Amino acid sequence: MTPLSEQNPEALHATLGDLQSRYAELQARGLKLDMTRGKPAPDQLDLSDDLLTMPGNRDHFTESREDARNYGGVQGLAELRTLFSGVLGAPPAQIVAGNNSSLALMHDCLAYALLKGVPGGARPWSREETVRFLCPVPGYDRHFALCETYGIEMLSVPMTPDGPDMAVVEDLVRDPSVKGMWCVPQYSNPGGETYSDDTVRRLAAMEAGAPDFRLFWDNAYALHHLTERRPHLVNVLEAAAEAGHPDRPFVFASTSKVTLAGAGVAFLAGSPDTIRWYLGCAGKRSIGPDKLNQLRHARFLRDEAGLLRLMDGHRQRLAPKFTAVTRILDRDLGGTGAARWTDPEGGYFILLETPEGCASRVVELAAGCGLAMTPAGATHPYGRDPHDRILRLAPSYPSLAEVEAAAEVIALCTLIAATEARLRG
Ligand code: PMP
């Protein structure tokens, strides 16, 4: 197809007519597809089926002869903390193994900071006039939702291929009302970027206006590679300690996309003071986590090699879906100038960038063809993409055939929206 920018209005009208008849054909197929969220597919969950019969009859003693059926052990099983020590980049003593959701741990750290304050702070965050968080954009909607629900003001920071734009971050963070920053440092949601060494070191070392500033370091995709390549990510806890800010990072991860999304284990890692602080707060909230789930995870994964083997299985199932999307977008949108998209090396998302003002129209058109997409704007604080341009594609859950059909729908809807936009001028 001739690039849209080279078509005169007459040609654009003809193109639109052509695209609309293809749209009617797609509508007639009666598709019912869902690409809204980054959920693992059933065949990925099947990889962890053995968990359903573990730890097994009468197997309920931990390595330290604790009875996992009983109360207690708020820090979580030592053997599981040891198993994830390499992934989290912290010694087992500086790790908490909790229940199934790292988002819940992020919520709790935020809530405790608001209600009680964090080490090094003068008062609970909720006693401040205004609390602000830096939000690399595009970003993860549930991070933004946490801020919104607790009245934390969000300041957008543009993403670059190396992570958040550090000149902007270093400028904004001098404001003492900036208490935190969301970071998805590897295969970020949704752009897929991994923070460069320089970015991580600067985040760890920068002068913050608030003495109790925290990095909410959500390493949700630490193990989630889509290729043979492995990115390098600087250990933020070490970098922060070296820079004299040992308590700055709250490091989060979970097995939601390793074992079972609804029944995995989540982790928090931090400095010794951070862990003491967290356990002091968490010990009031609960007498201890689900240690039987932790025990069966330790039995099932065995060691780090077992963990990496399992991730290979995920990659084998996921990578073809990502390849299918980029292949179809290349085929149908390549050279048209109607969009740009990422070809991520890991994580769960492809980012599609449409011309200004087109993203919500693409979602509307896709819905008309039976495809549910993540709403436009979800990747921005307050759900508002000021340019209405960014879309997040989540190819993990549908089958490969469904993903291919969905990619065709997305490509066509993007072309229609972009052609309409050019005709509007
Ligand atoms: N962080 C990021 C960046 C995510 O993309 C997701 C899931 N989509 C989560 C956290 C949720 O993690 P969990 O299941 O451990 O709560």
From TrEMBL:
Keyword Transferase attributed: yes
Pfam families reported for this sequence: Asp_aminotransf
Record key words, sorted: Aminotransferase, Transferase
Gene3D superfamilies: Aspartate Aminotransferase, domain 1, Type I PLP-dependent aspartate aminotransferase-like (Major domain)
One GO MF term attached to the UniProt entry: L-aspartate:2-oxoglutarate aminotransferase activity
Name of the protein in its database record: Aminotransferase class I/II-fold pyridoxal phosphate-dependent enzyme
Organism, scientific name: Methylobacterium oryzihabitans
